[in-house]
Design goal:
The complex is a heterotrimer of chains A (305), B (327) and C (339). Chain A has 305 residues and is an all-alpha fold. Chain A has helices at residues 28-38, 40-62, 95-131, 133-148, 151-161, 166-192, 196-203, 208-216, 221-244, 256-266, 272-299. Classes of the chains: A mainly alpha (305), B mainly alpha (327), C alpha/beta (339).
């Protein structure tokens, strides 16, 4: 208050001295990447998943054994013995190569099931949501009824009747896997289609197919990705479960589920045969779950505080 | 009674009746669909499903013929099947001579039910406590530790948890019996194996719903009334964060059922899950289909009850929230 | 007013939040008092800090990441800022109560209306259930709800707007508090209900001689109702004084803008509705000087970096604006261009 002069009271000509720096928004995508990098758990799970995927692809080439050859001289070897990194099983097969071959089967099933569910779910859900009214009503009632029957029971019935194998497992999961996706997509489409930019596109003469593909789907991709990261672990889980109750792939083929179920049989005397596949399966599902949680935090603006 | 309230209540009654009728209709359609699917699945099995591989004793074949009417045309067979199920008759086992599927279910299901209910209680009680604790200590160490347990719980398949529990606590340290079902102590490990997943899913759900409740104005308003922490937790947070759980009871029970298939096998428990898996491996079609139907109807019925229950418990449910739903 | 007894005095209150390393100054430095039986209105736009002021008196500021509260809040002879959470719990609801903005989100949806009234009675007065029941019925009747015995057993979603806000007031008044803080109690209501709520509050103040802090953004509501008025902007009090006095002679350019936009005579055809240009202050980045200068048509060099002291224009009517400094030679301060 010391040096007040007459000049201090002169009118201010240029008010731009004041700048609202904090209100400049980051670009949406830049923002997402930045947030994702902050989520250490999600980054860690991405790294773990990459390592597992690399091992699944290349692992079997590192060792001089294959997954099916039986060696009755060397059954139930402990890990590290005679060059078997993870030991051998009750038939003398190398667990290390079986683990990664089994991973190929499990991950392959999971990925195909996820893609199938995604494609069917998106088409079904967006048609129901976009057309609305009676079409929507009938389509969603069908989904509700199918959802009321536990999916795993249907899967089991199908597999009992059809011949167990990779294709049948994929078909069985594919039949039930898309239902939730369809519901989510439909809900999102219902919201998005009311937005002005969709209306604008329609006024400009875009047809329904173009509006769905170019204007609606890109705006609901977030929830779809989150749901995808949930389908993958549940497919791995489901495959392991089916293999455990004897409806998985047939020997000598292996999957993570069959390895774990063989491991449980041998557990009493050779616990490593359960622990090794158990850890790998759990780590994979865990990483997908953490990745999904991370993505949900980033993509779901409602969770932002 | 004031007219306003009376009209409101009358409207509520109408909505409720319509809602219940609709729910009954959907449940019946679902059950019919399930029955039809099982019937036609049996008939697409290549070859003769009931003489496949194993030679069946004449007595068993006789029973089968009586039950399915295999010599009659397909439509007659189908109607007969529907009639049998309406009577509650699920047919004969192919493997266990002379035993009906009903027999097997009534003998084995109580074990599964006990195991299921035990793990449900443990899972929900612990899940609720931990979930609310996590939310109240949001982004603190306690929250992180609880959430790590929860994400591990949903990530480790129950046959691995069961196997590891059995090996470490049963075989290696001999703290619990390794297997079988001869008293309470035998039920502990299977209950943990089955309950972990329930606990984990509940923790995650409760935490989310509690965080949502915590951000509501009425929590602040309760604080402004001078209500203490415990009062706020028990009277204002808990009732509101519990509500969403009720709707998950259906899917939760489905998770438990499939869980019993695995856990009963690992721990050699003579429950229905074990018979079911045995039936799958022996291709004992009547047992598999019968059990599936039994579980299916059980779950559909449960879902129906849960929906009705929710209607009565949540005071907020009104005309808007129900008609806006895709029923 | 017979005697001027202060029931509440707020001294140099500062409230800031820490959000991702940014310090958000919601309340910058404010002091005011409340007399017994007085209705004090606090008026400001959203973001002016008026609600945060109310919440910090109650000690219930929702914690975002971290809240810093400085200054003193003196109730009678008690400094509320020194109380523990438990001690504060005996003040809240019984001595100082609050009515929230939106009844539909501020009432617990799963608790019966009666129970929500009873709750604070049981907590503060240690009443038996039967007596608490009677008192809550009475509280409902007092706010003008007919058939209180029936409404006691209803859930909040069954209430209509006006009734919901009445229930909120009944809850706040249950223990006969000395001070009632109303945080925008009428914003969610239509004009008819707004009037009724105002009348109800007047009646209560008259009967129970409760002191009321009435927070609003609507100047229209408070004439003939409030005794004194605080105008807040950007976490500061820019003008204060008796309502009549400020209405007659609004001095701060912001207050003038408010009156001009609200108390305007009917518009002639094609005449534009008056609005204050610019947008409300962003508390992430407040100017060093007067928070209003970026929108002020009289802004001077000094306003940018120096904050004005309060200057008394008339008895009890003070304004924080450089236009009223004795060195300032400008004529605008006399409000000659104010229509």
């Amino acid at each position: 208050m010391k040096d007040l002069t007459k000049e201090s009271f002169e009118p201010l000509k240029n008010k731009d001295i004041y700048q609202d720096t904090n209100s400049l928004p980051l670009f949406y995508r830049q923002n997402l990447a930045k947030k994702f990098k902050k989520n250490k758990l999600a980054i860690l799970s991405l790294i773990i998943l990459s390592i597992i995927i690399i091992l699944v692809i290349l692992g079997p080439f590192f060792v001089p054994f294959n997954y099916y050859e039986q060696d009755y001289q060397n059954t139930n070897l402990p890990p590290g013995d005679k060059g078997h990194i993870f030991g051998t099983d009750s038939l003398g097969r190398d667990i290390f190569s079986r683990l990664w071959i089994g991973g190929r089967v499990s991950l392959f099933i999971a990925i195909i099931v996820t893609l199938l569910s995604m494609i069917i779910g998106i088409i079904y859900g967006s048609v129901a949501g976009y057309y609305g009214g009676r079409v929507d009503n009938i389509m969603m009632r069908i989904v509700d009824i199918l959802l009321a029957i536990p999916g795993l029971l249907i899967n089991i019935m199908l597999l009992v009747v059809l011949k167990p194998g990779i294709t049948t497992i994929i078909i069985a999961f594919g039949i039930t896997g898309w239902l939730n996706m369809a519901r989510i997509v439909r809900g999102q489409v219902l919201q998005v289609k009311e937005q002005e930019y969709v209306l604008a596109a329609r006024i400009l003469g875009a047809d329904n197919k173009r509006i769905i593909l170019k204007h609606i789907i890109p705006n609901i991709i977030g929830p779809i990705i989150v749901e995808m990261t949930l389908i993958i672990p549940s497919a791995i889980f489901g495959e392991a479960f089916l293999s455990y109750i004897g409806l998985g792939v047939r020997p000598p083929m292996a999957s993570w589920g069959t390895l774990a179920s063989e491991g449980i049989k041998a557990m009493r005397f050779y616990p490593f045969q359960l622990i090794i596949p158990g850890v790998v399966i759990s780590l994979t599902i865990l990483s997908f779950n953490l990745l999904g949680d991370g993505l949900r935090d980033i993509l779901d603006p409602r969770l932002e505080r | 009674m004031s007219t306003y309230l009376y009209l409101n209540r009358y409207k509520g009654d109408l909505i409720m009746h319509r809602y219940i009728l609709k729910r009954i209709g959907i449940s019946l359609i679902t059950i019919w669909l399930l029955i039809t699917i099982t019937f036609f699945l049996i008939h697409i099995i290549p070859g003769e499903p009931f003489s496949n591989e194993k030679k069946l004793p004449p007595q068993v074949l006789d029973n089968l013929n009586k039950y399915y009417g295999l010599d009659k045309p397909l439509t007659i067979q189908y109607l007969r099947y529907l009639g049998n199920i309406a009577k509650g008759d699920l047919g004969y086992s192919l493997i266990y001579k002379g035993r009906t599927v009903n027999d097997i279910i009534s003998q084995a299901f109580p074990y599964s039910a006990q195991l299921g209910i035990q793990s449900l209680i443990v899972g929900i009680a612990l899940g609720l406590t931990l979930g609310i604790m996590a939310a109240l200590h949001r982004n603190k160490i306690l929250d992180y530790s609880i959430m790590i347990i929860a994400v591990l719980g949903i990530s480790i398949p129950n046959f691995i948890i069961g196997g590891l529990l059995q090996y470490f606590l049963g075989v290696k340290y001999k703290l619990f019996p390794v297997a079988q079902w001869k008293g309470f102590i035998y039920t502990i490990l299977p209950t943990i194996a089955l309950g972990t997943r329930i606990l984990a899913t509940q923790v995650r759900m409760i935490r989310t719903s509690t965080l949502d409740v915590l951000s509501q104005d009425y929590i602040n308003a309760a604080k402004a009334k001078g209500i203490n922490r415990m009062g706020i937790i028990f009277r204002h947070i808990l009732p509101n964060s519990i509500l969403p759980i009720i709707t998950t009871l259906g899917p939760l029970t489905a998770t438990i059922l499939t869980g019993t298939f695995v856990v009963e096998n690992i721990f050699a428990i003579p429950g229905l899950g074990r018979y079911f898996v045995q039936g799958v491996q022996d291709l004992d079609y009547p047992v598999v289909m019968g059990t599936t139907l039994f579980y299916g109807i059980f779950l559909v019925g449960l879902n129906f009850l849960v929906d009705i229950l929710y209607f009565f418990i949540d005071p907020r449910i009104n005309a808007n929230s129900i008609t806006g739903d895709s029923l | 007013m017979k005697e001027r007894e202060k029931v509440l005095e707020v001294k140099n209150l500062k409230v800031s939040f820490n959000s991702n390393g940014h310090e958000l100054k919601a309340v910058q430095d404010i002091s005011f008092y409340l007399n017994r039986g007085e209705i004090l209105a606090i008026v400001g736009e959203s973001g002016s800090g008026k609600s945060i002021t109310a919440q910090s008196i109650m000690g219930i500021i929702q914690d975002y990441t971290s809240v810093k509260r400085e200054g003193n809040i003196i109730y009678k002879d008690l400094d509320l800022t020194t109380l523990s959470e438990k001690e504060m719990g005996t003040i809240r609801g019984s001595k100082i109560a609050m009515v929230f903005q939106n009844y539909s989100s501020s009432l617990n949806p799963t608790m019966k209306i009666g129970k929500q009234i009873q709750e604070s009675l049981i907590k503060h007065q240690d009443l038996q259930k039967a007596i608490a029941y009677k008192k809550s019925i009475e509280a409902l009747r007092r706010v003008g709800i007919k058939n209180p015995e029936e409404w006691y057993y209803q859930y909040p979603h069954q209430l209509s707007g006006g009734m919901g806000q009445r229930v909120m007031i009944a809850i706040a008044l249950a223990c006969n508090p000395d001070i009632l803080i109303c945080d925008e109690p009428t914003t969610a209501l239509d004009i008819n209900n707004q009037r009724q709520i105002i009348n109800l509050l007047e009646e209560i103040q008259d009967k129970l001689s409760t002191s009321i802090i009435f927070i609003t953004h609507n100047l229209k509501l408070i004439n003939n109702f409030a005794h004194r008025l605080l105008i807040m902007y950007g976490g500061l009090i820019v003008e204060r004084g008796p309502v009549k006095e400020i209405e007659k002679n609004p001095s701060h350019p912001y207050t003038r803008g408010l009156y001009k936009s609200i108390l305007q005579r009917e518009l002639r055809p094609k005449e534009k509705l008056y609005t204050i240009e610019g947008s409300p202050p962003n508390i992430k980045n407040l100017p060093k000087g007067c928070p209003f200068y970026p929108r002020c048509q009289y802004a001077m060099k000094i306003c940018v970096n120096t904050r004005a002291e309060e200057i008394e224009v008339k008895d009890g009517h003070k304004v924080a604006c450089w236009l009223y400094h004795h060195l300032c030679q400008r004529t605008e301060k006399r409000g000659e261009d104010f229509g």
